[in-house]
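Annex B.
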Amino acid sequence: MIVFDLRCIEGGEVFEGWFSSTSDYQGQLERGLVQCPVCGSAQVEKAPMAPRVGRSTAAEDGVRAKLAEMAAIQQKLLSNSEYVGEQLPETARAMHLGEVEKKAVHGQASVAEAKALIDEGVPIMPLPLPIVPPGQVN
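DUF1178 family protein: predicted structure tokens.
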């Protein structure tokens, strides 16, 4: 796991992002999945960071273990769910309106799309960790 300090280009907010690798960060950034938690902007860049020196602490090891546990639970939940990718907002809305059969689905939605679904009463829940589309490897 790698932690980057990130900065919102639009608002200047600085926040942390956790990724499995630098290439994972780059891929998510290119797909617009890295967004400012304050304003939802995908205009994000790495912020200057001090180098990390030394061995990991017990607290860091505990965080890694908790993230691994969360990832395992999330993977188990997703194993009974269909991946619909970027069609998640449309699919969830159609199920909510009774236009298609209800079933467990997962995919991607922007912050604005997720807020709109919630405002419409569509039952959605953000996942704590990014999902990897079928056929892709971190």
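Helices lie at 22-30, 58-78, 88-96, 111-119. Residues 58-78 form the longest helix (21 residues). Further annotation is deferred to the next reporting cycle.
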